[in-house]
Amino acid sequence: MDQSHIRNFSIIAHIDHGKSTLADRILQLTGAVSERDMQAQMLDSMDLERERGITIKAQAVRVLYTADDGETYQLNLIDTPGHVDFAYEVSRSLAACEGALLVVDASQGIEAQTLANAYLAIEGDLELVPVLNKIDLPAADPELHSRALSDLIGDDPENVLRISAKTGVGVKEVLEAVVTRMPPPRGILDAPARALVFDSVYDQYRGVVAFVRVVDGELKARTTLRAMATGSNFDAEEIGVMSPVMTPIGHLSAGESGYIVTGLKSLNELRVGDTITLAQAPATEALPGYREVKPMVFCGLFPVDSDEYPDLRDALEKLSLNDASLVWEPETSQALGFGFRCGFLGLLHMDIIRERLEREYDLDLITTTPNVEYQVTTTAGVVTEVRSPVDLPSPNHIEQIEEPYVRCTMLVPQDGVGAVMGLCQERRGQFVTMTPIENRQQVVYDMPLAEIVLDFYDQLKSRTRGYASLDYEMIDGRVSPLVKLDILLAGEPVDALSMIVHRDSAYARGKGLVDRLKETIPRQMFEVPVQAAIGGKIIARETVKAKRKDVLAKCYGGDISRKRKLLEKQKEGKKRMKHVGNVEVPQEAFLAVLQLDGDSQ
Amino acid sequence: MTGGDPAGVAHLYVHLPFCASRCGYCAFVVEVGREDARDAYLDALIAELHREAHVVGPFETVYLGGGTPSLMGAERLARLLAEIGPLLAPGAEVSMEANPETVTEDLLAALAEGGVTRLSLGVQSSHTPLLGILDRRATPDDAVRAVELARASGIPMLSVDFILAVPGQSPADLAADLEWIAAAGADHVSWYELEFKEGSAIARGDMVPADEDLAADLYLQAVEGLEGLGYRWYELANFARAGAECRHSLAYWGARDYLGIGVGAVSTIGDERRRNAPGLDRYMAALDAGDTPPRTRETLDADTRRRERWMLGTRVDDDFDTAWAGPPDHPAALARMQAQGLLETGPGTVRLTRRGRLLQNAVMQQLMDFA
Questions:
Q1: Under an 8 A CB cutoff, do B195 and A526 touch?
Q2: A554 and B237: CB-CB below 8 Å?
Q3: Which of B107, B88, B109 is CA-nearest to residue B99?
């Protein structure tokens, strides 16, 4: 189709602000799906996503829309992931578009991630169409939020569309705005082909399927293509569009979006952000913006039952097929046995993977304290990357430790500002700016990533009764006085409980941790000292007292089987314990490190 | 000692389930408000006893438990005892449980006449508020009166049951219980910890079990107090003056065969354990129709029997014969626990230390793979 009749656009929206519902309405209104075939929220294909109300994997759907001007347009709706951890994927999806719908809940207003993504879109020169959704809700305040939206993008409040994706009110106007306000693509048809990979998935039968936006030239099925960054060559087994199911059409030309079945066996051979060109007549220059996504957060995953180690490996292999950003390598812990050290894009990513492992693969896992990647310079002048507290050199060999910093942007209701700033200060935040956005404040802090990987988000929510929202982006690494905090049980250090903390909070963390461990570890046949130590120095100590007494129940003729079964049940419970030296440690003890409440309040 | 006793089962338990009300800590098979069924129940019991005539030998011990056996009334108990009498071995021990408020001179006279040698009074506490928490109907005065009547009745042995670690119980409360026991001059004391058993009212309510340390302190206070009064701590929760040990209970702890009759009663004979089903009407109807009462059966394999012998036998303060019981699953744990002061070993014997007796479950878990 000629480019003047093509629009590529995304929907930028916060979780639950109605992106999926609006997308569904668009599919219905353009006849791409009938009412009857409509499975609620068509675009979210994984159960877990639907349950959490988030979209992990972006896809592109093509619909044909006959506008009020009587012309028929090809609209490519490019979905974007809805979470902070997937910022790079979002940026690539936006790079595939000329415009975006900025959808905001008329009762809730703009949230931090929407703001972050809107800035990304503005930087990318996208035409933004502001949309207030859920105007049918009694709590909707369209006047207030229209002003905020138009301020944000420098538009007239009159241009803010007011819709209800749920009832369908205003959806037609949204499509008209896509056609009239957003510019068409301006690719060069006869230039060497260049297509941006904005998403890729692995299909067990067809290999890697790439979702692409063709910028220049044309891609045809059954030709040999090349991914410019990874250098992979592959045959385009099939080229087509999602409408909304996979529909082969044989070719995609400048301005269009669609999919390519590559037959590649690994997502590592074709990464998001890469440029696809023709192997025979390659473009000289790749599209800008490619970078390799690096994991930011690391933790150890260990099976509760050590027999499940091979199952955990299989599950990680399978998940990796469809998630190039998940990295893992074997790790051995004295306390927890064989497991894997895994790297994630962020906290949500970690949660999702852990939950999928437990739910889809039926594994029982122990997760160790998440940590970030540190750049450690030794006294010998060698710089190493440390992803696990266990790998930290001894203090006398450390010259300096650099830790990653992020810029946190939080949108906070006025009455929550004090609480949020208090939280940021406690977590070593450095204040950057505060700007009012209508009835809220945009608070910006630079913070060590390590301080937000634990429970920062939960704390932020709980201190603002759920109203604050958060976005963060990497800024740099900074040298900090960090130390390794070790936990000793009965005098033995427990590797799985070690963590890297700021020197000034080491005492409070250590104290809080030994207190919680004392509560979590059941009394044993002997006294168990629980100690926190830095280097060789003990900074906190508690004692799990020796067990003194079992229940002295009567045991007569009628009680014998019951008593025996009680012992059997106890035995079953003991099997789920981990043995650290002679000490039996329940799994919950390893979770104790994740709960910081009380240390910091 | 494997298989059934060739001479016949020497120990009989008779379950008399009737109660005036259910106590808060109780999870036994009891019947409240069914006094009208007592005659029919007695018929059924006797019928069940007759059905088992082929396995029973002369009974060395008999135990009438409940429920509240004394609620059966003097006449019915006399009839039951008359049925049992001819089955007794010379010098047999015949025990009966009674709640203090149900004890009368007539009742005791009938029991003495019928051959009861041992009366076990469910006193539970000498402190009225704690009796209230336990939902007991008797007052401390009832208990004193019951002891006096028992002493006058000619029944030779008197045992009292107490409960400790009742929520709110203080060391002073327990000291008062000890004084009460000394004054009553009981021959035997059973002193259990309050258990929050699944199915009891107390486990469903808001009360929480006493803290482990407090319960341990109370237990040691009871042990030392009773030892000071001349009782021997002969089993984890039982104390006796010389020669006053409960022979019936010792049979359980010695993993001997026993026959239990009555609704909900359990028998262990050879490698079979069977449990009569609860449900008074079903029980009576089956026996009335000349059938076996409804019951479930459990086969005890060699490993289970070996583990149960350890579980039961080490409760008793005596040299436990490891050759008779069979080896523990983890023999190396014996030396380790000896070093920890939990048990002592001799040639072919094991005996728990005082500390080990408070931790018998934990000791068992180290020695055995209960599974």
A1: no
A2: yes
A3: B107
A548 → closest Cβ in B260, B267, B358: B358
**Cα–Cα distance, A152 to A130 (Å, whole number):** 10
Residue B149, number of CB atoms within 10 A of its CB: 18
Q: Is A324 helix (H, G, I), strand (E, B) or coil?
A: coil
Measured in whole angstroms, how far is the alpha carbon of residue A16 from the centre of its chain? 16
Query: pLDDT (tens digit, 9 = 90+) per residue, A48-94?
Result: 444 433 333 447 899 999 999 999 999 999 988 766 677 788 889 99
Give the up-direction half-sphere exposure of residue A254: CA atoms within 13 A in the CB hemisphere: 17
Tokens 């599919």 — which residue? A27
Contact A518, A530 (CB under 8 A): yes
Residue A546 makes CB contacts below 8 A (sequence gap 6+) with: A523, A524, A525, A526, A527
- Put simply, the answer to whether B308 touches A549 (Cβ < 8 Å) is no
> Which residue has better confidence, A582 or A383?
A383
Residue B188: HSE in the Cβ half-sphere, 13 Å Cα cutoff: 23
pTM of this structure: 0.71
- Residue A556 at interface with chain B, using a CB cutoff of 8 Å: yes
Report strand pairing: A365-367 vs A537-544. unpaired
| Residue of B65, B358, B371 with shortest CB distance to A568 | B371
Query: Rounded to a whole number, what is the largest CA-CA distance in chain A?
Result: 94
Contact B358 A550 (CB under 8 A): yes
Please identify among residues 536-555 of chain A the ones whose CB lies closer than 8 Å to any CB of chain B.
Answer: 545, 547-555
Question: How many residues are present in chain A?
Answer: 601
Nearest residue on chain A to B211, alpha-carbon basis: A549
Q: Is A571 on the interface with B (CB under 8 A)?
A: yes
Judged by CB atoms closer than 8 Å, whether chains meet at A554 and B362 is answered as no
Q: Are strands B9-16 and B56-66 parallel, antiparallel or unpaired?
A: parallel
* Best CA proximity match to A189, nearest among A250, A251, A253: A253
Over the stretch A377-418, which tens digit does the pLDDT of each residue have?
Answer: 999 999 999 999 989 998 889 999 999 999 999 989 899 999
Q: Looking at CA atoms only, how far is residue B361 from chain A in angstroms? A: 6
**How confident is residue A598, by pLDDT bands cut at 50, 70 and 90?**
very low
Q: Is B245 strand, coil or helix?
A: coil
ipTM greater than cut 0.90: yes
What's the half-sphere exposure (Cβ side, CA atoms, 13 Å) at B37?
Answer: 20
Residues in chain A within 8 Å Cβ distance of B65: 556
Helix segments in chain B, DSSP class H:
38-51, 74-84, 105-114, 128-133, 140-153, 171-184, 201-204, 212-228, 247-253, 280-288, 302-313, 322-325, 332-339, 354-358, 360-367
Nearest to B216 among A549, A563, A567 (CB): A549
Q: Do B361 and A560 touch (CB under 8 A)?
A: no
Assess A557–B contact: CB distance below 8 Å, yes or no. yes
For A337, what's the count of Cα atoms within 13 Å in the CB-facing half-sphere? 14
Predicted confidence at residue B137, as pLDDT, reads 83
| pLDDT surpassing 60 at residue B345 | yes
- Which of B213, B237, B253 has its CB closest to that of A552? B237
A524: nearest CA partner in chain B: B362
Helix (H, G, I), strand (E, B) or coil at A198: strand
**Site from A527, A551, A552, A579 to mutate, B interface, most B CB atoms within 10 angstroms:** A552
Could you give phi then psi for residue A384, rounded to 5 degrees? Answer: -125, 155
Residue B20 has pLDDT above 90, yes or no: no
B75's CB contacts (< 8 A; 6+ apart) are B110
CA–CA gap between residue A563 and residue A109 (Å, rounded): 60
- For residue B21, the distance in angstroms to the closest alpha carbon of chain A comes to 21
CB contact under 8 A, A551 and B370: no
The pLDDT value given to residue B28: 80
